Amino acid sequence: MKRIVTLLFVLVAISAQAQSVKLEFKPVMGAEYPVSMEINQSTTIRVPMMGDVTTQSDQILGAVITLAEKTEKGYLIEARLTRMTVKATGQGQSQVFDSEGEDIMSEAIRAMLNKPFRMIVSPRGEIVEQMPVEDTLFNAVDETLATQYARRRRETALQQIKSIFSENTIKSIVQAGLTKFPDQELKIPAVWTEEEASPEMGAIITVQNRLQELTGGRATLEAKSIIMPDPNAQKSDAAQRMENISGNGEAKGIINADTGWVIESSGSQSLKGDYVVEQGGQSQSMAVSMEITTKVTSVRQ
Known about the structure:
It is globular and about 60 Å long. It has a single domain (about 25-295), classed as Roll (Lipovitellin-phosvitin complex, beta-sheet shell regions), CATH 2.30.230. The protein is built from five helices and 14 strands. The protein is α+β, with helices and mostly antiparallel strands. Helix content is about 20%, strand content about 50%. The chain starts with a helix and ends with a strand.
């Protein structure tokens, strides 16, 4: 009986020791890491003399990430977009950009699919460097638009597509598959907090992460975030911009514990701030609120 009790104690001790892990982003050469992201955003602006004006934006973005080489800073990866669908509706109007559509804009958007966008990701899952999106990548887009659009309309359409395939958009798609991990071994359950400045939002984002369990190579995480205005952020000089952004969010996800890549996740954010419009030397500020939901899977689009 004593031997059985001793054996059980050893097994329990081994099991307890196994419930710790160091999570890292560890891509394998030759492997593909797909990511699909759905974003639904409702934005309400309080316009003087008009009241609340609401617009709805729905996006489906897909990409495949591969490892190009390992560098001193981390992993040089290539992201190739496989799907780009953006639909916006508001005030009785709608606009659609869809790589799966049949019109000339859809054909031009497809010309950007499977183009390599490069960035370096650290083992912690942080994008530490992003290579600029070269204008030459849009040559095929311009040539496609030229088959049906006159010069002025073609230039407008080209700028719209450039904004869709901006560096921030590419970065957000890759980030959807990543999690920022602490540089240490984690006992389960574990909690860690990350804080970073977001120049795009002019805000400081604080995220509390909780590793809940590790089962069959799948790590289950929860995250809660608080967004506050960054007093040291550089003010944007854009004619239309968001300022004083604040809010909160939460997310749940399952991560591949071997590679650090997402399996699936979902989340929501509630934000508020000021929508500033400058025109003719005058500036007008209007209250704005946003409700955003996201869903991410490692399914190829």
